[in-house]
Specification:
single chain; 381 residues; alpha/beta; Aspartate Aminotransferase, domain 1; Aspartate Aminotransferase, domain 2; three-stranded antiparallel beta sheet; 12 strands; 34% helix; 14% strand; globular
């Protein structure tokens, strides 16, 4: 499927150059309208039916399971954040003294704090695989670090700050050969880069919903594999129990959870506003396909990458990074403070990570959107 610019589906001003979706995505017009419909329903509570608590939730789980190629929607939990999902995973892991939890260098905090706490609880070790000169070497270092003491590998499928692409297939095979759990933070890729549960076989996949999945802030998704089927949720939500659809029998307290990952959904996951918005967002993404999004971003950034390299910027080679999100290492002589001020004044929105600019583009961008950034950078060299 060949995609064209889709700016008409968004409400982005013409005088704004927005290359920062990794921090916060704009909302589709259809998603915005779905949120308004949810607000209207909340303002007229007499229109809310019992089925409204459950049927839209099932539809949303089916959409997400479709997006990540999961075998069953009941393996999907609706959660409010990545930290909630990681805390849920950690709540169901017991380590042995001396076990290792493998993470990558400068991992995002929401995929770190739970493991630090877990390691401290069981007197285990956090093993950080530092970033070498090349992503190819980084992948080799990760694979070499997985051994019989590795209880858990917790990482993103790219590095969140620069788009370095990790070989999850090989990492998964190595982890499984040592009975290590594999937990993936897909927040910066799922929706914009193909991801298949069937291919990678992670034990858990946790994704923020407000970035590349275009949902509202405060929504996220969790895939939980068979390892977690009989685990303990971090809260006891009534809708996660069997027969909770029968409102007249709610005080016939049910000891059994709904199957698979349903026990891990957050309380009030049937949020009438959020769920409607998420459904519209995922419908659009599935129509585009993550591969279509990735191919489009590669197409529009191709010439810009060449021009940036000609200015003295360093960008990882194509095969070892993503195209919807990538890092630009700036020349050392550049005045970052002056550059940031200039970009802001010109309505050019990017993200800074140390001496790197993180670019994250999408279907509302065109190749023309890179020119103001390139011209601004050139004027500071």
């Amino acid at each position: 499927m060949t995609l064209k610019n889709q700016k008409h589906l968004f409400d982005i001003q013409d005088d704004v150059t927005y290359l920062n979706i990794a921090s916060q995505s704009p909302t589709f017009k259809a998603t915005y309208n779905a949120g308004l419909e949810g607000l209207k329903q909340k303002s007229q509570p007499y229109t809310i039916k019992t089925s409204d608590y459950f049927e839209p939730v099932i539809e949303l789980k089916k959409l997400f399971s479709n997006l990540v190629n999961a075998e069953h929607y009941n393996r999907i939990a609706l959660i409010p954040s990545v930290s909630y999902g990681m805390a849920t995973v950690a709540n169901n892991i017991v380590l042995n003294e001396g076990d290792e939890v493998l993470v990558i260098d400068e991992q995002f905090p929401s995929n770190m704090y739970s493991w630090q706490k877990l390691a401290k609880t069981y007197n285990a070790t956090i093993k950080v695989i530092e970033a070498p000169d090349t992503v190819k070497q980084w992948n080799e270092d990760i694979l070499n670090a997985i051994h019989e003491k590795t209880a858990l590998v917790a990482m993103g499928n790219i590095h969140w700050s620069n788009g370095s692409l990790f070989n999850l297939k090989a990492i998964s095979v190595k982890a499984k050969s040592h009975n290590s759990l594999l937990v993936i933070d897909g927040s910066q890729t799922v929706g914009a880069l193909p991801f298949s549960i069937k291919d990678i076989q992670p034990d858990a996949l946790i994704c923020a919903g407000y970035k590349w999945l275009f949902g509202p802030y405060g929504c996220a998704y969790g895939y939980f594999g068979p390892y977690f089927d009989n685990g303990n949720p971090i809260e006891e939500n009534w809708t996660n129990r069997l027969d909770s659809e029968d409102f007249s029998g709610l005080t016939n307290y049910q000891p059994e959870y709904k199957p698979m990952a349903n026990r891990y959904s957050v309380g009030e996951s049937g949020n009438f506003i959020y769920v409607k918005m998420q459904i519209e967002a995922l419908k659009q993404l599935i129509q585009w396909t993550p591969k279509g999004v990735q191919d489009y971003c590669k197409q529009i950034s191709l010439e810009a990458v060449k021009e940036l390299k000609a200015l003295g910027c360093k960008i990882e080679e194509d095969n070892y990074r993503t195209h919807h999100l990538f890092g630009i290492k700036l020349p050392e002589n550049i005045d970052l403070h002056a550059l940031k001020k200039d970009l802001f004044n010109k309505n050019i929105f990017v993200s800074f990570r140390g001496n790197y600019i993180r670019i994250s583009c999408h279907l509302y961008n065109t190749a023309e959107d890179f020119k103001p950034l390139i011209n601004c950078l050139a004027s500071h060299l």
